[in-house]
Fold this sequence. Notes:
Elements: H1 9-15, H2 23-77, E1 91-98, H3 104-113, H4 120-130, E2 139-145, H5 149-157, E3 164-169, H6 175-186, H7 190-197, E4 219-224, H8 229-246, H9 252-268, H10 274-285, H11 299-305, H12 315-319, H13 343-350, E5 359-364, E6 369-373, H14 376-391
Antiparallel strand pairs: 1-2, 3-4, 5-6
Subcellular location: Cell membrane
Family: Belongs to the transglycosylase MltG family.
Transmembrane segments: 53-74
Amino acid sequence: MGTEPEYEPTAHLETGYVPESEAPVANFFEEESDTRRSRRPSREKQRRRRRRTIVMLVVLVFFAGVVFGLTIFLRDLLGMNEIKDYEGSGTGSVSFTVAEGDGPMVIGGKLEAADIVATSKEFLNAFQTESEGREIQPGSYEMKQQMSSSAALDALLGDQGGAVHYAAVARDLRQSEVFEILSTSTGIPLAEFEALAKNPQAFGLPAQAVSLEGYLHPGEYRFPLDQDATSIVTEMVDGTFAVLEDAGITDPAEQYRILTKASIIQAEAGEADYATVAGAIQNRLREDNVETSGLIQSDATVTYGLNRKSYDLTPEEKADKSNPYNTYANPGLPVGPIGSPSTEAVEAAAKPADVPYYYWVTVNLDTGQTEFSSTLAEHSKFVAQYQEWCATQEPGRCA
């Protein structure tokens, strides 16, 4: 007996022929198949649409990020994101220093680095178009953050209040030299300044002060055209009092003593050695000092008392006790300051370094190399080294 082949509805459906006896069954399967077929493509299409939508969104976000990043990069590359110049007169306060020899390009770079101006290029443009041949003088200036280039230039040229009298007072100048500078700058007769110096107590100096020596603070000054001699001197003396107070020195007698010491430090040492020289002087002033017996032995003080600048002193001049500034013959500090000390020298005098030295000598005036010693024997070797250096110099170089 043969085996009947199994029923295969799909075979019938594929040919399109369905026997009547099998129609209900075929119709049943056909309806079920159509329903499944109609549902399955709908779900797949939805899933495909969702996938396409997600992919498109990811691609769009990616390309948007690329375009944004590329735009920023190109703007940076082309300088389109840079602030070309700040606006206005700026905010806050910052001290800015123009060194000797600094030109407009260097000054512009320093201003940009300190965020005083936006770019050195714009500052240079302002200088070239607005300076009218004037030069920026070396010195310290009170500036502001984020100034326009024109405002910064005005501050450096002294144009904030119109025309001014400019005076550059260097450190270590004597009172007479300062007055000459002030008179030349302002046109005020020299005699007016000299007359003011005869009454130093009128400017707040202690009773022992016999002049304004030491109290005329060095620096860059821009005096209004109508400023008189009294207010000019007051401004400079007040500057010295401010430096002393900042150093913690408020007693008038101690201020006078510190200024006297600072003026010696200023004359005897380079800035790098201020604190060390201050320490050596402090050691010499100690009561238990047996090395120099309280003598400071400064050439600068002796020459001041002689009203000279040369340090070429004779044995007789060093031994002359009648010179009240002679620290070879008279122990302790001289009777007063010998010049205008800088802020740094005042700070060193107020806080001298703790060192074992009593002696110092600059062995090379070109480099400022200074050697320190604790004994006279060691010091003598360095003095010989200095003399050897002087022997190689032009006549008068070491005078």
